[in-house]
Write a structure and sequence with these properties.
Oligomer: single chain
Protein name: DUF3953 domain-containing protein
Organism: Methanococcus maripaludis
Number of helices: 3
Shape: elongated
Radius of gyration: 14 Å
Keywords: Membrane, Transmembrane, Transmembrane helix
Order of helices and strands: HHH
Largest sheet: none
C-alpha cells in the first residue's frame, strides 16, 4: 500500500473519531485543524507537491473557520 493511501486513511479515521468524540462544532473544527497540521508535518516527505497544495488549501479553510469561531467566542465574552 502506498504511503499516500495510508495518510488518506489516517486523516479519514481522525476526522471520524473527532466527529464522534466532539461535543461541539467548535471543538470539532479545532481538532480537525490540529490533526491536519500534524499529518502535513509528518507526511511532508511522503506526499507530492500537488497533494501538499491541496492539503494546504484545506488547512487555510479550516484556519479561517477556526478564526471565525475564536472571534465569535471573543465577541460572546465581551458582550
Amino acid at each position: 500500500m502506498k504511503k499516500i493511501n495510508l495518510m488518506v486513511i489516517a486523516i479519514s479515521l481522525w476526522t471520524i473519531i473527532a466527529a464522534i468524540l466532539s461535543p461541539s462544532f467548535d471543538l470539532y473544527i479545532t481538532l480537525l485543524l490540529i490533526g491536519t497540521l500534524i499529518f502535513l508535518e509528518i507526511g511532508d516527505f511522503f506526499i507530492s507537491k500537488k497533494n501538499k497544495g491541496s492539503l494546504k488549501i484545506i488547512i487555510y479553510i479550516l484556519a479561517g473557520i477556526f478564526a471565525t469561531v475564536v472571534l465569535n467566542k471573543v465577541y460572546t465574552i465581551i458582550k
